[in-house]
Design brief:
The chain is α+β, with helices and mostly antiparallel strands. Helix content is about 25%, strand content about 30%. The protein is globular and about 55 Å long. The structure holds uridine-diphosphate-2(N-acetylglucosaminyl) butyric acid. The site of uridine-diphosphate-2(N-acetylglucosaminyl) butyric acid has 19 residues, from strand 18 and helix 6.
Length: about 325
């Protein structure tokens, strides 16, 4: 499963010199929610992550535009949550962290096209598609991220990828304006969409009219497979490494005898070796140390350099 997060950097980010008063001013008057010094572990599937200066949940797309404009005017970096393939470091994230959870509208348009706002959860979108007998998203059964996260990462499983269904993407650009980008204008790579800079706030997916019971059956079977083979009941960030060409990171890690290996409360899952699970109080530093151990063991034993699928963000 692939779910991304959106980091919105401006040229000013590197030299950012903003104060907490700037942050307060930038988020003043929003109708959505605003939480200062918010522990980010509560916003991640890994249940790991230090505090954000502020987390905002804009009430609608207009408020996303407003937050971008306010942040830009004060040279405050923005980070957009939405992914679950994410490790936020123990020092948290400086600046404004945006959660799109309040953007949850779904609309059916003509010709088997659905428009979903960026904060819609993938499971919700799949449920909607099933109720409307629309096929094409079954591959994503069990992916817990938002549709915006899935777009940004070109989420995918063995059965398919996000790019197969995307017709167009609605974004808020760096000036805080809404722009619609046709899929044909976007280059999609393995677990990456080369989008213009900005925040994905909506997506049109083109599906196919199907038979409800058949779509339901595929989703159910796939969910069953995932539950049998992946530690979905424990906090994790999905697969940690990309699969190397013609191989599986999980297979390689298991073959190296690393299942169950721990640093603190971070553990290489016993169920699927390409998952790391948080047994309770794991810190990002523990996960990173475990990643280092796995990588060097695989390099040594199999001669393979594993690439991270997990995005690591924030301060140490
Ligand atoms: N395997 C092992 N040991 C393990 C795990 C896997 O030997 O601990 C073997 C399996 O027996 C199988 C092969 O490796 O022969 C492939 O395993 P699996 O079917 O679980 O698929 P995967 O390649 O490990 C990919 C995606 C998953 C996605 C599944 C199912 C990547 C990096 N991983 O896993 O995505 O859920 O297929 O479609 O592409 C994610 O991206 O977060 C993720 C979990």
């Amino acid at each position: 499963m692939k779910r991304g997060s959106q980091r919105v950097t401006t040229a000013a980010r590197v030299h950012a010199r903003f104060t907490q008063a700037d942050v307060r001013a930038a988020v003043a008057g929003l109708r959505g929610s605003v939480s200062f010094q918010a522990p980010l572990r509560e916003y991640t599937s890994f249940k790991i992550g230090g505090p954000a200066d502020v987390v905002v949940e804009p009430a609608d797309i207009e408020e996303v535009c407003l937050v971008v404009q306010q942040a830009r005017a004060r040279k405050i970096p923005l980070f957009v949550l939405g992914g679950t393939n994410l490790l936020i470091r123990d020092g948290g994230i400086r600046g404004i962290v945006v959660s799109l959870v309040r953007l949850r509208a779904i609309k059916e348009e003509s010709g088997a096209v659905l428009y979903a706002e960026g904060g819609v959860g993938m499971p919700t979108l799949i449920g909607y598609a099933i109720r409307h007998s629309l096929a094409g998203l079954e591959w994503a059964a069990g992916i817990p991220g938002t549709v915006a996260g899935c777009v940004v990462m070109n989420a995918g499983t063995k059965l398919g990828e996000m790019k197969d269904s995307i017709k167009a993407v609605r974004m808020v650009n760096m000036k805080g304006q809404v722009v619609d980008v046709e899929a044909a204008q976007v280059k999609f790579e393995y677990r990456r969409a080369l989008l213009p800079r900005g925040i994905v706030v909506g997506v049109w997916v083109e599906l196919k009219q199907g038979v409800r019971s058949e779509i339901e059956r595929v989703v159910k079977d796939y969910l069953h497979y995932r539950r049998e083979t992946q530690p979905l009941a424990m906090p994790s960030a999905g697969c940690v490494f990309k699969n190397p060409p013609n191989d599986s990171a999980g297979r390689l890690i298991e073959a190296s005898g690393l299942k169950g290996r721990r640093v603190g409360d971070a553990e290489v899952s016993m169920k699927h070796a390409n998952f790391m699970v948080n047994r309770g109080q794991a810190r990002a530093a523990d996960v990173m140390a475990l990643i280092g151990k796995v990588r060097s063991a695989i390099r040594r034993q199999a001669g393979v350099r594993l690439e991270l699928e997990l995005k690591i963000v924030g301060e140490p």
